[in-house]
Write a structure and sequence with these properties.
The protein has 206 residues and is α/β, with parallel strands linked by helices. It has 7 helices and 6 strands. It is elongated, with a radius of gyration of 27 Å.
Length: 206
Amino acid sequence: MKADAIKIDGASAGSVELDDAIFGLEPRADILHRVVRWQRNNAQAGTHATLGRSDVSYSTKKIYRQKGTGGARHGSKGAPIFRHGGVYKGPTPRSHGHELTKKFRKLGLRHALSAKQAAGELVVIDQLSVDNAKTSALAKHVNDRGWKRALIIDGTEVNADFARAARNLANLDVLPSVGANVYDILKSDTLVITKAGLEALEARLK
């Protein structure tokens, strides 16, 4: 399929051919859900921890004699039933990540790109360049285009001057093509891809 391309200032930059195998799929929510869940689980720190019975600092001396007290039998003050005792089966540091095949991850990225194209939230631009690499100039271009919470994907490397100009814009993220991922694509309101980014993504998803 064909798509119009623009420059960062809104001027026309001709048209580009979008690969139907990447941008023309019928988006499937189940595939996108599985890939996003895989991403977020792998990003989870898993550093939650509590003190168990063997971790709390108490004397190991029996707290009172076995018989004759009229109370229940107890040995350790660190037992979970006592205040400040250890936590029974509390969380321990662990990895929340799980496996997902490379083939399925590529499929998820194709469906994410197709979802943006189908929703009319995909913009193709010629290249990343801003006069004098000023944040104020880039912010004006972004506002003029009406991009809110935009994700820009460039080629194998992001233009250094553009990345510097975009660094202080809260509603703008810039990634190289290798960093393109389903979660960031779906959470953006506008997906902006350069012509170099298109070529790199097509090569990556072949």
